[in-house]
Please model this.
Amino acid sequence: MAIIKTIMKQILTFILLTLLYLPLQAQEKVYTVDNIPKVHLQNKFQYVCNPAGILSQAACDSIDRMLYNLEETTGIETVVAVVPSIGSEDCFEFAHQLLNKWGVGKKGKNNGLVILLVTDQRCIQFYTGYGLEGILPDAICKRIQMQEMIPYLKKGEWNQGMLAGVKAVCQRLDGSMVNDDEGRGEEGISVSMLLVVILGFITIAGVVGILAVRASTRCPKCGKHQLQRSSTTVSYTHLTLPTTSRV
Model:
């Protein structure tokens, strides 16, 4: 009887310890800017923060080499963070905090870039310092995400998606990107082409309007036009594409 009681106590103890351990283990999978490992600050040759092992070691090594070569060539500093969860935090704000807390980018140049992948939110976020906004604008970031990364990430192929994305970013930043189109969007239509279409439409509308006005001012008796003063104001807004994409 005593043996049975001892065994029951051991089983109950095991169950209690398991129930206490599981919440702690789940909590460790939610990363914050305070508990995420600062790998690049600890090792200047390591650019990938992959605490949950979502990426393979081979993929991390390849990305580290690409980003090391990029920094050596251009001086641009890029870090990659891949985590399973950031809780209810926003990807954009989390990446922004990482860039500031880790001090990504050269002092005085603000040429840092954070690439963040959060798998439970299925989001991929690029956050650039002010010094990179000219060479890596939102439209280009969005294009890289949609064309190079999303096809892999939506299938859970994290290694392929991150490798393809980082490679495209490096090619853009070092000037070797092939068939680069500054204004190319996710549908493959360039902003410049869109502006040409809009201006063409405005021109046609203007011509039609002028002809209509001339017809309305023609004297019904003599057929001559009366002189009038006219003006046209055209305004347009610039749309900025967000650099957060959902997988």
The CA atoms of residues 199 and 205 lie 10 Å apart. The chain has seven helices and five strands. The beta strands are 48-49, 77-83, 112-118, 123-128, 244-246. Confidence is low (pLDDT under 50) at residues 183-189, 225-242.
